[in-house]
Amino acid sequence: MTALAAGLALHFPEARTSILTWVRTKGDEAGAALITVLVTAFATILGILLTNKASADRARLQFDHERKSAERTQAYDLRREALLQSAETLQARLVALGTAARMDVSEMQIITLTKKQSASLARAYAVASDQTFLTLHRAQAALTLASGEVVIRHRIYARGKDSAVRTLQDGLDRLRSERATYLRWLQDPTMIRDPRDPVVQRLQERVRNLDAADMRQQDLLLAAQGESFKVLAAVAHAILDAAKKCEPVVIEAIIAIRKDLGVATDEARLTASLREDLERNTAKALGLLSHMDDLVNSFSNATTDAPPVDGPPSGGTSNAERPNS
């Protein structure tokens, strides 16, 4: 401040006395004011810088949080995708086992196939914690049982895929359609109503023959359905037997994989839990197989106890053409 006053005094000699007097009386007060302004400005600038740094820190923390959340979401999606792939693998295994059983492949080949599928499935979530692994394995077992039940019930209630059954059913439908046509003609008021008329007699005879053929066709259809059920029950038993013999081996393989990967595993507790699941699911499967056996027996009894039909169909026309009166 003094230097500033000295500079002004040199440039304005006529005001030198006044300037020196002002410096002596007001210099300290003006200097203090200037220092206060400078300190305030510095504090303001420092505050702005600190505020900007805090905002940047919060933005960085928010970004880190969102990035970690996205990583967790991605990891969850990957686990969910792995589980979906596991479900597809299980369904493929069930189909493969059913195909193998229908083709009379040996029991050891079925067990080998099951072991390979289960081992590849186990690697998909072998690194999970014990509790997560148990949850996934129980979901796998439940899905296996549900898939088997769906397949079996589909074969029970949608037997049209069986060519023999479908052929017999088509024949039965044609017989009933022809019979309905003849009955409609007999009830037609324009037809001759005299029961002694040859046309009426031929139609009535044809209806009786079609009734007898209908009963025989139903017997054949029941027999074909019973055979279809027997094959299906054999497949289901083969699948269950293979699974029962294979599951302990699979459990050991899963534990070995987890050990190789360095996953901490309570082997005794895990093995006990998996075997409890196996026993529970085996009991459910046995109940389903019992239902299958009951169906096979009911069809066998239906075909055995069916009353005989007297004589083959004879007379009449073989197609649904309106006769000339």
Give a quick summary of the entry.
The protein contains 7 helices and no strands.
Key phrases:
single chain; 325 residues; mainly alpha; transmembrane
What is the element layout, followed by pairings?
Layout: H1 2-11, H2 16-102, H3 107-124, H4 130-157, H5 163-186, H6 198-260, H7 267-304
Helix pairs in contact: 1-2, 2-3, 2-4, 2-6, 3-6, 4-7, 5-6, 6-7
The shape is elongated
Question: What is the mean pLDDT?
Answer: 60
**Helix content percent band:** over 70%
**Binned strand content:** under 5%
Total strands: 0
Please provide a written account of the structure.
- Helix 6 runs antiparallel to helix 7 (267-304).
- The longest helix has 87 residues, at 16-102.
- The chain folds into two domains: 2-51; 93-304, no CATH class.
- Residues 97-114, 146-161 and 302-325 have low confidence and may be disordered.
- With 325 residues, it is an all-alpha fold.
- 15% of the residues are buried.
- It is built from seven helices and no strands.
- Keywords: Membrane, Transmembrane, Transmembrane helix.
- The chain crosses the membrane at residues 33-51.
- Residues 315-325 have a biased composition (Polar residues).
